[in-house]
């Protein structure tokens, strides 16, 4: 039996403009709203990321983060 889709948490999120545009595009392509798209991505995180590049991309993002906040 499929799991019932319940949104149990709501939280304020701060996103970069590029990240939000990509989320909007992904959600539209998938036929989901933004919350459903985020739920899908995090429920299936291990199978949707590329493990070979994830750590490198995360390091790059973290190294640029302070400059992007200014």
Structure description:
The protein has four helices and no strands. It is globular and about 45 Å long. The chain is 67% helix and 0% strand. It starts with 16 loop residues before the first helix and ends with a helix. By secondary structure, the protein is mainly alpha-helical. It has one domain. The model has no long low-confidence stretch (mean pLDDT 89). This is Ribbon-helix-helix protein CopG domain-containing protein. It comes from Roseisalinus antarcticus.
Task: Give the gist of this structure.
With 70 residues, this protein is mostly helical. It has helices spanning 17-30, 34-43, 45-48, 51-69.
Radius of gyration: 14 Å
Distance between the termini: 49 Å
Question: Roughly how much helix do the residues carry, as a percent range?
Answer: 55-70%
What profile does the largest beta sheet have?
A: none
Mean pLDDT rating: 89
Alpha-beta content class? mainly alpha
Estimate nothing, just give the exact number of structural domains: 1
What's the total number of strands? 0
Shape: globular
The portion of residues forming beta strands comes to: under 5%
**Pattern of helices and strands:** HHHH
Low-pLDDT residue spans: none
| Total number of helices | 4
Short descriptors:
single chain; 4 helices; mainly alpha; 0% strand; Ribbon-helix-helix protein CopG domain-containing protein; 70 residues
């Amino acid at each position: 039996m499929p799991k019932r889709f319940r949104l149990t948490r709501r939280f304020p999120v701060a996103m970069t403009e590029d990240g939000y545009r990509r989320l909007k595009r992904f959600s539209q392509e998938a036929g989901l709203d933004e919350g459903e798209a985020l739920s899908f991505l995090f429920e299936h995180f291990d199978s949707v990321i590329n493990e070979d590049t994830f750590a490198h991309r995360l390091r790059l993002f973290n190294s640029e983060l302070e400059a992007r906040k200014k």
